[in-house]
Design goal:
12 helices; five-stranded mixed sheet; six-stranded parallel sheet; Rossmann fold; alpha/beta; 346 residues
Amino acid sequence: MELCTDLEDVEQLEVVQDRSSGLRAVIAIDDTTLGPALGGIRWRHYPDLGAAAAEARRLARGMTLKNACADLPYGGAKSVIWALPGGPPPAGPVRTAQLEAFGRFVAHLGGAYVPGVDMGTSVDDLATIARVVPDVSCDRTDPSPMTALGVFAGVRAAVESGDGSLVGTRVLVQGAGHVGMALCDLLAAAGCHLLVSDVDGVRARAVADRVRGTVVDPDAATGTECDVFAPCATAGVVDGTSVDRMQCRIVAGAANDVLAEPDLAEALRRRGILYVPDFVLNAGGVVHIHALRAGWGADKLEESLLAIGDRVRRILSDADRTGRTPLAVAEELASDRLGRPIALLR
């Protein structure tokens, strides 16, 4: 097993194991320049701990960029708990024991890492961890509407950057889960025509009917003609194959890690497709977390979520002026705030 060979660009990497509960996990703290590192706990199976560490580091870097660009007082981190092959993460007493063991390892970090919910974990899991960790980003409010509002503001800014209007704009929303559905509602209310795609055909039809949209087969989604392609589901949707068949003007959605490789931002630019960095667009969730921790009211929270659109406008304007990709501009924005160069991990 090769764990990591280029550790110079990660602040702290902890590989932990608790024999009594069976816990094996990786905690990646990418950067704490701006404050404690905020990032979720992902619980899934990996081929080995090396793969788990690589994903933790990559996701932690994304959180650093997201928090820095959103002007929040947090660094970036991510942790992954390695589930056994052949099944979902454990339940019952075994799950509780592993979460408490994980919490003890987090507590040893002295407040450098503030864990949150991610794939495979829940607010109940965070409540269990909170028994032994003084600070977790745990709240039972569904953050989906906040994330969707920030993405909506960014999509609107991207469309208007080309002197367009949302009225009549064809937006393909890939992924009709909580965030995707909320985004569809906002876009439909603004006059967009919605194309809805999801691996769950029943869910896709329900959301399409809700917004008077059209269902698109998931296998055809990336190649369907539209004005805006809004990925709101799995990572890596834009890859070396799909980038050549895309028929949209803008890629802007709520999913993390839309680009399978950062270099695809340049490939999209060469094709005349405007890519809005996902870590800028989908910051509504972390803005909501900070609003709860800082005691913001509803008006200030909404103002901060809509400010994502203003940020997108500035990034796109700078990219157009300098001939760079919006990704490069967004990375520079984060670098300026951190006081050192930083970019997505390749």
